[in-house]
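Quick one:
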Amino acid sequence: MKRKTTILLYLILTFQIILLVGNSHFILGSIYGFLDFPIIAISIIFLIYQYNKKNDLKYCIIFLSTLIFGSFYLFNMIQRIDISRKEKTSEAISILSYNLFFKNKYKTKITNEISKTNPDILIVQELTNSWVSNLEQTIGNKYKYRKLFPKKGTKGLGIYSKFPISKSTIHSYCQINKIKVKNKNLIVVNSHLASPAIAVENPDKFLDYFKSNFEERNSQWEKIEAQLKDEKEETPIIIAGDLNTMKIESLYRKIRLKWADLHSKNGDGFSWTFPNTHNIKYPFLTLDYILYNKNVRGVNSEVLKNSSSDHLALLGKIKI
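Output:
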């Protein structure tokens, strides 16, 4: 029994080291994000059990080593607790991020939800000409300012705002908008990173496709951050949309080192937004986010449940 326990201890330690070394790997990084905290919890339980039972220093050393490696995960969590400033803020703004689904044939549910929530700023992904026409008829009179870049398929992006939009730059994976909120400039990035759908649809080539997609999403995110680098340090910035990135992935952990996640800090319940289908009643993945920098204070966030898209919408309120 003692030999088996020792082998188990070393296996856990070895596994933890592998995950730590592969923290940024497209697969190992996700396994790390999914399993690291349970491994820490199990280590603590066995550490207490073995110490109380045998007072054996060897077991304590092995498990303490495991916890040291696992603490890298906890360190990341601590870094992400709160990056926002505590100064007084004035203007409260509501933001709705919606992946409309370019093939959507049942648009009424979505337009009713947008009308009901009546956000100050609406950003949409997978915007097509058909969607532009529909939104113009249903909510167009609510938004004096808009910058729309509809396209066939999934690449269309757009923003509707009750505040003036002074500038809007479009890329294949994001739309960067400068908005004047009274006397303040607010940057709102509408992002739609590359989808890993092709990997899911081709299980025989999953690893190859997912690796390629992971690298593409990382590259797109780095480009977004590079494009924001010249903004003034005091400028409030929001990055929102469909990032096609799960919370267990290393890309999300990298994002959270610099950006706060509104729902993680100020939301109620789970932030699961995908998939939303007739066959799956409850989404179980988070792909859509509202992120912000240190010049923004989060107020609240909620996932809207009444959607005909394959994504649920994310509604947030912030102050600048």
